[in-house]
Target: Calcium homeostasis endoplasmic reticulum protein-like protein
Amino acid sequence: MEMPLPPEDQELRNVIDKLAQFVARNGPEFEKMTMEKQKENPKFSFLFGGDFYGYYKYKLALEQQQREWGGSGPARGLSRHPRARPRGHFCPSHLACPAGPGLQPLLVLSAPGSL
Model:
């Protein structure tokens, strides 16, 4: 999954990033509640398919992935996928895995010196 371009507006980027964290932690009900409360707020148009919707969904998937793996950073808490996959390929269970036809791995790790 390639990261969509984030907003240049740092304040909007912070709003999207924080909301993705909260929704990953608190579940889709939190997203629904935010949509109801912020439906008139143009800063939250990304929730309704507006600009940066793709970036929000990407950040949400990333946050959910990190929570599933138990880490707090992009390279922390990685664990082997529960089902056997090719050596060095890691993916969360709710996203496409590299074993599928034509799919790219989310993260490929190789032992030092093996490249």
